[in-house]
Amino acid sequence: MAGENRLRIGVVGSGRMGSGIAYMLAQAGNAVSLFDTDPASLELLPERFDSIAGLLGHDGAALRRINSSTDLATIVQKADMVVEAAPEKLELKQSLFSQFDELTPTHAILASNTSAIPIASIAKPVRDKSRVIGTHFWNPPHLIRLVEVVQSDPDSGPVIAKAMAILGGAGWTPVHLKRDIPGFVGNRMQHALKREAIALVAAGVCDAETVDTVVKMGFGGRLGVIGPLEQSDMLGLELTQNIHNVLLPDLDVTPHTQDHLNNLIAEGKLGMKTGEGFRSWTEEQADEVRNRLDNFLAEQARKMARNN
Ligand SMILES: NC(=O)c1ccc[n+]([C@@H]2O[C@H](COP(=O)([O-])OP(=O)(O)OC[C@H]3O[C@@H](n4cnc5c(N)ncnc54)[C@H](O)[C@@H]3O)[C@@H](O)[C@H]2O)c1
């Protein structure tokens, strides 16, 4: 490899995730190239990059280091690392990884940003499976600075270590997951919380707005500074045990999508885009939530940049 700070990295898929991932990797000094089958998506890149640079208070100089093409070979044939962020379809990802196997140098790390597909399935067409890992970024990847680095092959240790160094150098906090399990770690916890939230509303304990208020004004406020297990350690494990003795038998354990969610969807209540989901939304209210989230995440990212 050409040194940890000036690597050749190909990003495959230039949508919501790929564009943010490419931006961050280029900002860190890597030579980044983006591939997409859709020229229209590549044409949107300057606008997307300008908006990310604006959010992060950058001058946009890194953007000059990003190339793009609709020819896959051009993007990956000299790559030290490829990050795949194409649509979430197994056959499509397998076909891409089969081409990476043919086209990339044998030292190249092959990473998928899949949300849910097992890494081992994506790696099927690749001869040396130890090159294939998961890199689960969060949306938007330029603002949420966590990446779950997922090991699937037992021999991937050195590849995982290199990937973590590259991603850490580009401003993310990489965490190593030693097993390739559905939802990785973050989405498992996020959806365990959502299952309980839906159950509470369905049981008439409170409405959806109240659930959101309890999280935002209650324990959610401290989650950015103290994790759940850190908090148990702080308070003493016996407290967690006492609470679990009473609470765990009462928590929702529905092993499939809940009726309340299925019924809303069947009624066409799909969330902000249809004006109603768990809650009702005017256009103005929906815009206010989106802006609130963008501004909060951008401020967090700027704070992190100032502290580094
Ligand atoms: N959006 C999220 O919240 C999120 C979070 C984490 C992971 N992911 C995962 O990241 C991946 C990409 O998601 P996204 O939200 O950026 O999707 P997106 O639809 O915004 O972008 C996908 C891009 O891939 C391009 N594409 C289509 N076929 C292709 C091909 N054969 N080769 C290369 N590019 C192709 C599309 O033109 C598009 O530009 C998915 O696997 C998704 O599950 C998404």
Secondary-structure blueprint of this entry?
Blueprint: E1 8-12, H1 16-27, E2 31-35, H2 39-43, H3 45-56, E3 66-69, H4 72-76, E4 81-84, H5 90-103, E5 109-112, H6 119-122, E6 132-137, E7 146-150, H7 157-169, E8 173-177, H8 186-202, H9 208-217, H10 220-223, H11 228-235, H12 237-247, H13 259-266, H14 283-307
Parallel strand pairs: 1-2, 1-4, 2-3, 4-5, 5-6, 7-8
Antiparallel strand pairs: 6-7
The structure holds nicotinamide-adenine-dinucleotide.
Describe the structure.
This protein has 308 residues and is α/β, with parallel strands linked by helices. It has 2 domains: 8-177, Rossmann fold, CATH 3.40.50.720; 186-307, N-(1-d-carboxylethyl)-l-norvaline Dehydrogenase, domain 2, CATH 1.10.1040. It has 14 helices and 8 strands. The protein has helices at 16-27, 39-43, 45-56, 72-76, 90-103, 119-122, 157-169, 186-202, 208-217, 220-223, 228-235, 237-247, 259-266, 283-307, and strands at residues 8-12, 31-35, 66-69, 81-84, 109-112, 132-137, 146-150, 173-177. The protein has an 8-stranded mixed β-sheet with strand order 3-2-1-4-5-6-7-8, with helices on both faces. The chain is globular and about 55 Å long. Nicotinamide-adenine-dinucleotide (NAD) is lined by residues 12-18, 35-38, 41, 85-88, 92, 96, 113-115, 137, 139. Nicotinamide-adenine-dinucleotide binds next to helix 1 and helix 5.
